[in-house]
## 1
Amino acid sequence: MGTRSITELADVIRSKNAGPFELTFDIIFKNVEIYDRVKKSGIITPELFARLYRISAEKVLNFCFFDQALAVKATIARPVSSGTAGDRDVFGAQQHAPLLEIEIPWDD
């Protein structure tokens, strides 16, 4: 069985602030067939977010598959609050990069 990169399967992969203390992530898929396959693969989980962002599972504050939008949504605690010393991304718009490494098992 091969794999497909999340970048091939999703239309949108983004991050943004969810207030000064949280980051939220969206992965929105191209169509229902791709979305269902990714969802059923079991690869994208709160534990995956914890591993990719090197945080404890408790810091993954929200995680869900949002069927109506063909999307995965997650919210994590920011390591540094937005706009404080040490914050390198005030808007949280550049935090999605680790998600680009996700590979989904795929047989054509």
## 2
Amino acid sequence: MPILNSIISWIIKQRIHQVGLFMKYPVEMQEDWRRKLLSIAKNTEYGKQYHFESIKSAEEFRERIPLIDYEGLKPYVQRLMKGEENLLWPGETKWFAKSSGTTNDKSKFIPVSEDTIQECHFKGGKDLLSFYCNNFPETLLFNGKSLALGGTNKNNGFSASTIYGDISAILLQNLPFWFEFSRVPELSIALMDDWEEKIELLAEKTMYEDVTNISGVPTWTLILAKKILEKTGTNNLLEVWPNLELYVHGAVSFVPYREQFEKLIPSAKMNYVETYNASEGFFGIQDEPGRDDMLLMLDYGIYYEFIPLEELGKDFPKVYHIGEVQMNTVYAMVISTNSGLFRYMIGDTIKFTSFYPHRIKICGRTKHFINAFGEELMIDNADKAIEMACKKTNASVKEYTAAPIYFSGNEKAAHEWLIEFEKRPDDIKIFTAQLDRALQNLNSDYEAKRNKDMALKMPIVHALPENTFYNWMKSRNKLGGQNKVPRLSNERNFLNDILEFCNMHAESNT
């Protein structure tokens, strides 16, 4: 064991040294990857169409290759799923990550190459462990088991050789065989598509294991944790897993969930690490404890570009590379990857919190904010405001969504919030006032619109019955995986649908 620990320590030090290099030379690192991606993909159909072999600079890259979203990618995806090769990336593309991003009926199928699995997603997992062990050298993480809440996958029906599923399921199925000895549950359970049955079996199969670390989306992790406590009759997870020390989370902001996790895992030694691991790639890791931002990983086969939020929707938006960005400006992120996604707008917005190293915070989605009246309310504002209102009213929020109420006659506009509380405030009016005050403190545009109720009146907050969001997702066949409730929307379709769902169930119970 001492020899093994020495080998692991040496590997970690070498990797930390490599990461240090791209921290010092981010522009050079990114330019190198842009050249590599163009060189590797130059003989694909896409590479020939845009003459990759003759692109020599970042400026030519911007001018010659168009920005695309999923609609632009979809025709290639449909052909790839039927078994065509060498369209976006050399060779066969076997895997496709199914992602809705929200609860939209429409699904996206993101090509995932073997290069992306190995050199991006798995490399991100290794780096996460390297950072963690470097920060906590006394860790006993490897003495127990890892619990990963994976999704599911299936053959796509077009070609026997191509498979789609949640990115977590794709990664679980491609892990080396020896990793199965250190993780739970067995793959057959981890990849089940019936999430209610899966939660039952996950609880039964893991509650007697020595779990030291968990990774998964917060919502489903909480559901599993509560099921385990119910089955074991215990008060917290440390009574079940006394050596639990790490929770790795991502996909949604952890801010609304932290208090619930701290009650379930009442230990000062428990560590929480955020990752930015999407269907399109592994982008960021919280590399230092205590920080609320992530290191943007620049050597994973991804070339990044950034569009200022105010440029979105323009025919020729300004686009910047890593050496041109500014601090605390909200950018839509554009990626070119080793799966053949070139200048692909993933729909996420970020801002830089430090340079050298370049760290980022996720602000939200390009379509998931409220800017109906010029208030530019982003998800990070909403999460922080919810947290502040909860502290003031001794409440705890489980899930929420919000949308605008538009002007109607003499009626002023407002924001309408649907909130499912873990612990309800004593007075919902006081909570609403605290939420409004927090939003004004956090967002000057919102504050201006609320001034003397001129454009926006006080928010309207509805406290929903327990499990409303879960039951609504279930009714839409959207349990588990990458499906999540949109926090904010400029449109009212999600909010109206949930309200209608609540009214239908209220009527059926009377």
